[in-house]
Design goal:
single chain; 343 residues; alpha/beta; TIM Barrel; 15 helices; 45% helix; binds flavin mononucleotide
C-alpha cells in the first residue's frame, strides 16, 4: 500500500502492535456483528490496518465460508472475533483454530484457560477484551498475547468502567508487560497519538468505521449516525437487580423507550406476583433479539438496535476506509511532531 504520509514517530511507538498483528498500521477495525463482513474486513486489511470478522450467532460452516471469502479478497492477516456467550461459540472456536489465523480474539465474557490454550496451540496470537481491571489482570495471568482494553463509551455490548479509568488502572501499569490495544471512543488521529504515548500498542475502532462507504450497513443507519450527537449513544438502563440487563450502548430511539417501559411493566408484575422471575427474564432477553439486524441491515432505525459508541459525535462524514485511515495516521504523526516540539 502506498503510504500517504510519513510514520517515523508512529513506527517508534506502535512497533509491538505492528509485530503482533503483522501489519503496517496497528489500527483494528473491531468486530461488529452483521457489519464486519469479508468486504469491510478485507478493505481495512488491504489498506495496511487490521480487522476482525464478527461471528455473531452464525453457524460454524458460515464462519468457514466467511473466512474463505475474506481470503479471496485479501492476502493480509485478519482475526476472527469469538463471542464466548454465543450459542455457536464452541463451533466458532473449532473453525478458528483450524483456519490458520494470525490472531484469534475472545470477547463476551472470560474464555476458559483451556480455550485460550487451544487457540494459542493453533499458532494464533490470542487477544482478549477486558472491560474491568480485574478481568484484565486475570487475562494477563492466563498468558494471553495482548489485551483489548475497552471503555464503556464504546458501541455495542459494554462493560461498567470508563476508558480513562482503565488506562490508569491497566495501561499505565501493564503496558510494558503486554501489548494493550485501546478501544472505545476513538475517532481522531490526535487521540490515537496520545494513547500511543501513554503506552498503547495500537487501537481498536468500531463506530467510526461504520461511517465508511465500504461498510454494508443500511443508509438509514448511517443517516442516524450522521444526525446523532455523542450524548445520544446511551447505555441500556437496568432498573432493578431482579431484572438484570446486559448493557449495550446504542442510539436512543423508539425501541430503547419501549424497552424501558417493558422493564417497568415487568417489575410491577413481579411486585404483584403475576409473573415469575424466569418468564420476566426471558421477556427482557427476547426484546432485542434480531434488533441489530433490523436496524443495521433492514434499515429499521425506529425499533431496531442502533448500536453506536459515543464517538458517533465525532463521525459525521461518510468517507472511504482509506480516507479514514489516512486521516488517523497523518493526524497522529503530525500530533507527535508537535508534541516533540513542545518538549
Ligand atoms: C454496531 C456494533 C456492533 C458490534 N458488535 C460487536 C461484536 O459482535 N463483537 C464484539 O466483540 N464487539 C462488537 N462491537 C464492539 C466493537 O468491536 C469495538 O470494540 C467498539 O465499537 C469500539 O468502540 P467505538 O465504537 O467507540 O469505536 C460492536 C460495536 C458496534 C458499534
Amino acid at each position: 500500500m502506498q503510504k500517504t504520509c510519513k510514520t517515523t514517530l508512529l513506527d517508534k511507538l506502535w512497533k509491538r502492535g505492528q509485530d503482533l498483528l503483522g501489519v503496517q498500521f496497528p489500527i483494528m477495525c473491531g468486530a461488529m456483528t452483521w457489519v464486519s463482513d469479508p468486504n469491510l474486513v478485507s478493505k481495512v486489511c488491504n489498506e495496511g490496518a487490521f480487522a476482525s470478522l464478527a461471528c455473531g450467532n452464525m453457524a460454524g460452516v458460515e464462519l468457514e465460508r466467511q473466512i474463505q471469502s475474506t481470503r479471496n479478497l485479501t492476502d493480509k492477516p485478519f482475526a476472527v472475533n469469538l463471542i464466548t456467550v454465543s450459542p455457536n461459540y464452541k463451533a466458532h472456536l473449532d473453525v478458528a483454530v483450524n483456519a490458520n489465523l494470525r490472531v484469534i480474539i475472545f470477547a463476551g465474557s472470560l474464555p476458559k484457560e483451556q480455550e485460550i490454550d487451544k487457540a494459542k496451540a493453533s499458532g494464533a496470537k490470542v487477544l482478549v477484551f477486558a472491560s474491568t481491571d480485574a478481568l484484565a489482570k486475570r487475562m494477563i495471568n492466563h498468558g494471553v498475547d495482548g489485551l483489548i482494553l475497552e471503555g464503556m463509551e464504546a458501541g455495542g455490548h459494554i462493560g461498567p468502567v470508563a476508558g480513562p479509568i482503565l488506562w490508569q488502572q491497566i495501561l499505565f501499569e501493564y503496558s510494558e508487560t503486554i501489548p494493550i490495544f485501546i478501544a472505545g471512543g476513538i475517532a481522531r488521529g490526535k487521540m490515537m497519538a496520545h494513547l500511543l504515548l501513554m503506552g498503547a500498542a495500537g487501537i481498536q475502532i468500531g463506530t467510526r468505521f461504520i461511517m465508511t462507504s465500504e461498510c454494508v450497513v443500511h443508509d438509514a443507519f448511517k443517516a442516524a449516525f450522521q444526525k446523532a450527537q455523542a450524548r445520544d449513544a446511551v447505555a441500556t438502563p437496568q432498573f432493578d437487580s431482579r431484572l438484570p440487563v446486559i448493557a449495550v450502548r446504542a442510539l436512543k430511539n423508539k425501541g430503547t423507550i419501549e424497552f424501558s417501559k417493558l422493564q417497568l411493566e415487568i417489575l410491577s408484575e413481579l411486585d404483584d406476583g403475576t409473573i415469575d422471575r424466569e418468564t420476566a427474564q426471558r421477556k427482557v432477553e427476547e426484546f432485542w433479539i434480531g434488533g441489530l439486524y433490523r436496524a443495521a441491515i433492514q434499515g429499521n432505525v425506529e425499533s431496531g438496535s442502533l448500536m453506536a459508541g459515543q464517538a458517533v459525535g465525532l463521525a459525521d462524514e461518510i468517507k472511504t476506509v482509506k480516507e479514514v485511515l489516512d486521516e488517523l495516521v497523518c493526524d497522529a504523526e503530525q500530533e507527535l511532531e508537535l508534541t516533540l516540539k513542545k518538549l
